[in-house]
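Deliverable D4.2, example record:
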Amino acid sequence: MKVGTGGEESREPERKVKFVGKQTSQKYPTNAVKTSKYTLLTFLPKNLWEQFHKFGNCYFLLISIVMYVGEKTPLFVGTIKAFSTLGLLVMMMAVTAAMAFYDDIQRKRADDAINNTETTIVTSNGEQEETAWQDVKVGDVLIVHKDEEFPADVVPLFSSGENGNLYVSTANLDGETNLKLKAAPAVSQHVLQASQSPETQLRGLSGQVVAEPPSANIHAFQGSMEFTGPQGTEQASLDYKQLLMRGTMLKNTDMVIGVVIYTGRDTRMVMNSREAPMKRSNLEKITNQAMLLILLAQAVLALICAVARQMNLPLLDGHWYLYPEVITLPELLGWWLTFFVLYSNLMPISLYPTAEFCNAVQCYFIKNDKRMYYRDPDFNNGIGFPAATRTSNLCQEIGQVGFIFSDKTGTLTQNVMCLRCLSIGGQQFGVYHGVGSPGGFNGGEQLQKAREQAPALRKQIDGFLEVLSVAHTVMVSQEQDGSTLKYEAESPDEHALVSAAADLGQTFVRRKGDQITVNVDGRGQLYTLIATNVFNSTRKRMSVVVQRASDGAYLLLVKGADNVMLERAAMQPGEKQKLDKDLHAFSIQGLRTLVIGYRQLNDGEVKSFMADFQKANCALTDRDLQLQNVAEKVEQQLQILGATAIEDKLQDGVPETIRKIRIAGIRLWVLTGDKLETAIEIGYSTNVLSQDMDIEVLEEDNADANRLDAMSQKWADNRNDEDRAKRAIVLTGSALQNIFSDDTAKDLLLKVATSSAVLIACRVSPAQKAEMVQFVREGQKPTPVTLAIGDGANDVPMIQTAQVGVGIAGREGRQAVNNSDFAIGQFRYLERLLFVHGRWNYRRACKFTNFTFWRNMVYVLMIVYYTQMSGFSGTSLYEDWIRLSFNALCSLPILAVGSMDQDVPEKVALDNPQLYNVGRLNQDLNVRTTIYNILQAVVHSFVLYFVTIPAFPGMESQGSGDYYTFGTICYTCLLIDVNYRAGFLTNTHNRYTIGTILLSFAGYIFWLIFYPQNYWLAHLLGPNMYAVPEHMIKCIYFWFCIVAVPLLAITLDVSIWFFFHHWFPDMKDGFLTKRAVSHSNYSGSEAEDDEEVPFQCVSEVSDSEYNSIGSEDDAVDQSEFGQQTFKKLRTDVPRSQGYLKPFWSGIVCGTILLAIGALAYSKSEANQQIRITYALSPKQEVSWTERAWLQAPFGTKDDEVFSVSCAEQEKVNSSCSVKVTLPRGLRRPLVYYSVGPYYQNYFSYMKSEVTAELEGEEVSSSKREQRCVEPTRVSADGKEIVPCGAKATSYFNDSFEIVGHPLSKTGVAWKSDLARYNNPRDFPNRPNTTWLYEMFPGSIDPKLNVKDPEFVSWMRPSGVPRVWNRYGYSDTDFQPGDQIEVIIKSRYPIDSIPGGFKTLVITEDGVFGTRHHGFAYVMMVLGALCFFLAIVAWFVHKFTAGADIKGTYSR
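Output generated by the structure prediction step:
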């Protein structure tokens, strides 16, 4: 809370508050409480500040800035538009900001509701006024009625209760349900209660309260009051009984009048409303480290490409149509920045929102797990308590716990105390039959018989029961039936003792002011309470001084811990020996002990004590210490009456839960305040300790470095898990203090403690609990995930120090719950929290993390491969607005997997806790899995690349080989591969996992229709993308690719999976069934799933318990979604049948790929062609990728290739005649030309155009200058070239004619492009302008100019460094043996281009394109590969055993 102070004490001096007739002049904080974080003015800057604390957000903001600099300045070449990254970043951050804003609105509404709540104040003239809480000020006098909350911290002046007593509920403050007794000071109570209308009696009265500075301590308060009434000024001391804190509620009292002392941030409630410490998950830390490695990899990739570009520059120099980029940075640095930005998506920007979404869903499942819903009539007023999550980013952390630090009382036990045994006068009463034995104290008859038969013992017994029935702070009331007494105790110990005393004949029946009434054998015995010396953790005892009415005797009645009581006892050695023996016997049975004593005081001692007590009680400083010293003086020479032995009952299921925790390899440290013997016995009863363990006990006298060194040497030889499981350490708080004071001993303790499975620390303080957690976190490397679990306020430091804090909603209040990361109702629910939700969530989180990194690696590797194909110019394979959808569309399929996947059924996880090792040992996200993911990314990127590239000639011949269509086809294949991969990684398919995959595809289809297929939006965002989807789906090779990619990926993935799991199995592989699980059947429930498991699976929580949630109870979502019982299809197979996956996928996929290859081959072979190469460059030094594109397509026959030389005629506009005899006939052939190597996809070349100018619009000179370098903008004679740009001015102006066979231009260019290309309105009359037809006479039709089909086709750049462009179609067939004459006008210069060539192709063209066997060959090879992998999988299964699964738990 913003208004909280984190529990810090105020530096303000003592506070003086005047009231009624006087006014407080000093200014104090307003009473308005603000938990909201933002205002309208601060929301944006604060939220941005918070979000930019995330490494990824800072990175992408910086990258966006760098992109913008490269785009707008000549520092370096920016090939990626800044909006494509910045826009996505803004969208991602906007979603997070919207969630934060919504949450803050809810907080603001809650604040307004509280601040505007009305209360009643009393004015100085005695009138009553209604005012809002936020307007309450220090010094105001309030009237609070029954069942109303106190709006501020108030000191009562008057209570309508008897003798000024009143009751308050502090449940809102500390969660305790017991009512607390408070009282108004007598000086004001006596004056105001004399009037029938106390509020009007205030008129004319005045007073002042002197109070301590604001403090966070809700159990202490010091102050004094001066009250001026009719009889003058009187003074009274104030303590915590006179402080009514904000948030507490008045109960069982009609009205209270009080003065406000503290408001707003000074109130106890607000000062205790501290923000929980920021906890980062282990997975988040690993992810951030991985991001740094990715950043390094990105930098290295960029450097490699920058160096490769420099090496490739000599080959580019001859490409006259490419104009050198002008950059001001050093060449290598500038191009390094270009490629670094180009590969920026290697860093997954969508990982943060993906993680937030998955964490939110995982939290939802935890909160709604009805098997963790706790309801008990005696708990929380019968209201059920569901599991709660307060820190969503730790959902996967509970699947990685290595150490558990547990409180005992209220955590392992119920904190429901039951008296079991007594020791009085050296004699034991009652027999304890062990943990879980029914009933309570069974020695009643024995005690009564001893009382009747032994007069001497009778006095001790009566005195013993007298202490139990009188020495306490219990409140009593009657149930509605009027006959049953109801005790309200501040601790369960007191409740148990008072109840036991009542059962044994001394019944506490009434407390009225300072009068206590006890019914003794049917007769009322009255006691006057003189003073109470309260219990605290330092004193470890409490006592009362009373006067017994029957004889007037003054008695000091005391009960406390054995060590402090025996130190103050007056006992004979024999008596002490007997008591020690009984105490030891009780302790080794696991019972909690208290020693009971008394002392009779004389009048002088009482007077002296009361004088000191009153003086200490009126002190304004160190009051508690002074009261403690006064009590210390009188609590001496005690007569010991005996001891009690109380059982703190174990919670149900604790031993079994701890047994499973130990099997899972989690080290359990129990930190308790009990005696050593009690702690050991509880350890045995809870399965923390076992009889076969080697238990080392460290006490104050033997806890030193030498002892620890001896233990270390003893355990040095055997440090494996099996040996460690048989070791335990038990040590005391004093021993721990000694060890922590010696650095050597501290290091040795860590060494031996981490070599054992269990550590029990007894007699430890809350601070020492937190120190133990920090001790492990700082000392153990690598840092393990620590979990602390407790139920009380004393466990809060431990809970907040641990990486994961779990609060149990116990009987000691809700401070542990309120300060925890997770909250549960019982310790046994920790089993489901860890082994079901924790394990599932860890594997889910690792799955979506690994998937996200893999996905982005594949995406970027495709761009890396394409970098060389684009001449190292920085061209992205994907168009900007298409790739903008990548993170959104490719995140969808993993959302359901990361939220709902279940690698094993929950009962398998529960019954086989060693499966938890996968998270504890971090097996799903480590160096090995990282290498595995990198290899998988390389494999998948190769699959995508080597399926789409061989298909390019077919795409080109069908008009789909341009950069935009080819890139979109590659992107579509990538999207299919990503969605397939998400499905492959899923263990349990359900409607949500399938739905998100379908949603991803639907979103992509929608985007294709909405953007590139929509003329207006395409015209606005990317004109060259218009109609790309239409031509993409018309291409048969597109369909071949989107079928081949997932088929090949399936075969490779399942083969890798099989080999990996065969030789490197994980623990889960040992628990799969002996037959495939539900490959063909959906299972309707988890129980049906579990029928496939060959061993018994039993849930720790009975159906009767969790089914107690009524249908009317909306505390949890009982739907199949909320319970994760939706229908699902499991894809697991047993390890013995694992080979079937690669075998059958290889056979099936191989068959389909071979069929595709055979079909493509037959159709390719059917298309006849002739190829006339009529120009070659004298420079033949080319790169290996260029050389691949210089070859004729596979399948070209020797008799189809003709070579002539027209190069000498390029200097004049003359023709070259070629006569060719056709070896085979051609049906209505297509004529196209091929020129290469030619980088139409070179970035600066491809972007060198003004789209508006091509579409006939007038454009400004500045825009022309921005997009067109001067030689492409201004002709040699100074005229403006229209249209400008490298693409237009480098138009391929060779022309061809087949004598006797006219060529039709229909279908040469896209209709959509022809429709949008237009000449200007003033064409051709604009002065000082060189038109396109003037630049290329004889090639461009003067009437058409930019609408010439050949030019329009040229302006759609090729996707590879070679141009295949249609020239025309013949309407007549060519017969075999015909001699045709081809007239070539060779104008286009290629002599300077290394490896340059020009080829004219006359070919048949069908649905499958022209002749190119390459794609068919690749499909056949890949099909054969699938068959090969299938055979290898069968061979490996048949002839090799595979690796053993270590740690397999056999049944």
